[in-house]
Write a structure and sequence with these properties.
The protein has three helices and no strands. It has about 55 residues and is an all-alpha fold.
Length: about 55
């Protein structure tokens, strides 16, 4: 998940979003997504796993 989030940020956000939105998304990736889900393989990410992590 970490690799996907970083690639998505670089390939989509930096090219299509306003600077403040880029900054906000980058902070969410670094501070929330990667610490919580970074170790999870995208193939294994399921809705039930999302809610389990979210509810911690």
């Amino acid at each position: 998940m970490a690799d996907f989030a970083k690639t998505w940020y670089k390939d989509y956000c930096l090219k299509n979003l306003a600077p403040k939105t880029q900054h906000s998304y980058n902070n969410h990736i670094k501070n929330r997504i990667v610490p919580a889900w970074g170790h999870i393989d995208m193939v294994k990410l399921r809705t039930c796993l999302f809610f389990t992590i979210r509810d911690k």
